[in-house]
Design brief:
The protein is α+β, with helices and mostly antiparallel strands. The chain has helices at 15-26, 44-50, 69-80, 93-108, 111-116, 131-153, 168-183, 193-203, 206-217; strands at residues 5-8, 32-35, 58-61, 64-67, 123-126, 229-233.
Length: 238
């Protein structure tokens, strides 16, 4: 039986690709990956062959093309793992529903962060966040605090993730962690201790570190995702 194939974009920029890739890694799913350069003519044939939307990520498994990070997460839960992607198996119905709600919120909302703080792992950049962006950051911090405080109060051992064990919620908020790393300090955006602690947990994740290391090796520059005043750039740029 062939391994699933995950088609992803640039690791430096593609937040949607990170979600699917990290989820597959953390749930021990053996897969091949096919990275493509975003917005490149060379990428069009692979997208035309597998992606009805023309976007990444796409999971190809058993002749089926699954487009979009949320659809991929649901497919993983249903067909590729015996574990629940919604957190600790001991989590209550309310906790799993909460996890599902947060994944949906991240998937469809928080547009201020998305538009003003595009993922750019190689850079440290200074921005002037709008009221909407700051409101989104406050909402993200509220989510982190609520989830982590709830797990701290429970009797279950917590690994420092939002729902105890790593869940799809952590995968979906992973790009936000890289965004905060890129923009928060340089833009003098003060983060709460709970947020800082969760960022440390996520940035210590070996797969997050692997993704980051590979992003730093990339050379393609996408001008639309080079937001703000670039203070520092790491890696080799072409």
């Amino acid at each position: 039986m062939n391994k699933p194939l995950l088609i992803i974009g640039n690791k430096n920029y593609s937040s949607w690709s990170l979600r699917a890739w990290l989820l597959l890694k953390m749930f021990d799913i053996d897969f091949n990956e096919h990275p493509i350069a975003l917005f490149s003519d060379s990428s069009k044939p692979i997208l035309q062959a597998h992606s009805a939307t023309g976007k990444v990520p796409v999971l190809v498994d058993d002749g089926i093309n699954i487009c979009d990070s949320l659809a991929i997460a649901l497919y993983v839960n249903d067909y590729l793992t015996d574990k629940s992607i919604w957190g600790n198996e001991k989590n209550s119905k309310a906790e799993r529903s909460h996890c599902q709600s947060l994944v949906a919120e991240m998937h469809s909302g928080l547009m201020g962060i998305r538009s003003e703080m595009p993922m750019n792992i190689r850079a440290t950049a200074r921005i002037q966040p709008s009221k909407q962006c700051l409101a989104d950051i406050a909402r993200v911090e509220q989510i982190f605090a609520q989830c982590l405080q709830n797990k701290a109060k429970s009797s279950d051992l917590s690994e420092g993730y939002l729902f105890g064990e790593f869940s799809v919620a952590d995968a979906f908020f992973a790009p936000v962690i890289f965004r905060l790393k890129t923009y928060a300090d340089a833009s003098k955006i003060a983060l709460k201790p709970t947020t800082e602690k969760y960022c440390e947990v996520m940035l210590s994740n070996p797969y997050m570190q692997q993704w980051q290391a590979l992003a730093l090796q990339e050379t393609q520059v996408i001008a639309d995702d080079e937001a703000g005043e670039i203070v520092r750039v790491v890696g080799v740029l072409g």
